[in-house]
C-alpha cells in the first residue's frame, strides 16, 4: 500500500474517531462509556496523535450513540456501504427541509474548501476543517435519499409552501 493511501486511510479513520467521540458527548463522557482513560480518548481525539480507538471502545461508543461512524468509515475504505434493514423512515420527513439542510452543509463544506485553497496551499489544519464539514454533509445524504425513495414508493408527493390552516 502506498504512503499516500496509508495516510488517507489513517486520516479518514481519525476523523471518524473524532466524530464518534463528539457524538458521545466529548472526551470525558466517551471515556466513561468506553471504560478507558480520558487521556487515551484524548489521544484518539487529537489530530496530532496516531492512536485510534480500540475496537472494543468503538463498538461500545457506536452502540451508545446509535451511529456506526467508524464502522461506516472502515466499510467505505473497502468500497462497501453499510445497510441496516431495520431502518424505517422518520415520521414527518420533508424533502424541502432535508434539501435545505443538505444545501447549508454543502455551502459550509464549499466555503471551507475554497478558503483552504485560496492561497494555493492547503494545510493539514485547513484540510481537517474541510474533512469535518464533508463528514457532516455525508451524514445528511441518507435523509434525503430516504425522502426521495418514500416519494417513489408512494407514487409522488406534493411539495411547496402552504399557509397554516389552508384547506386542501
Largest sheet: none
Gross geometry: globular
Count of DSSP H/I helices:
7
Amount of helix: 55-70%
- Beta-strand percentage range: under 5%
Q: CATH architecture of the largest domain, please?
A: Orthogonal Bundle
**Class by alpha and beta content:** mainly alpha
Total domains: 2
Query: pLDDT below 50 for ≥5 consecutive residues: which ranges?
Result: none
How many strand elements?
0
Order of helices and strands: HHHHHHH
- Cα-atom Rg, whole angstroms? 19 Å
Q: Give the overall average pLDDT.
A: 85
Organism: Mycoplana rhizolycopersici
Protein name: Transcriptional regulator
Structure description:
With 168 residues, the protein is mainly α. It has 2 domains: 3-77, 434 Repressor (Amino-terminal Domain); 95-154. Helices cover 66% and strands 0% of the residues. It has 7 helices and no strands. The chain is globular and about 50 Å long. 15% of the residues are buried.
Q: Would you summarize the structure shown here?
A:
With 168 residues, the protein is an all-alpha fold.
SSE arrangement:
Layout: H1 3-23, H2 27-34, H3 38-45, H4 55-65, H5 69-77, H6 95-117, H7 124-154
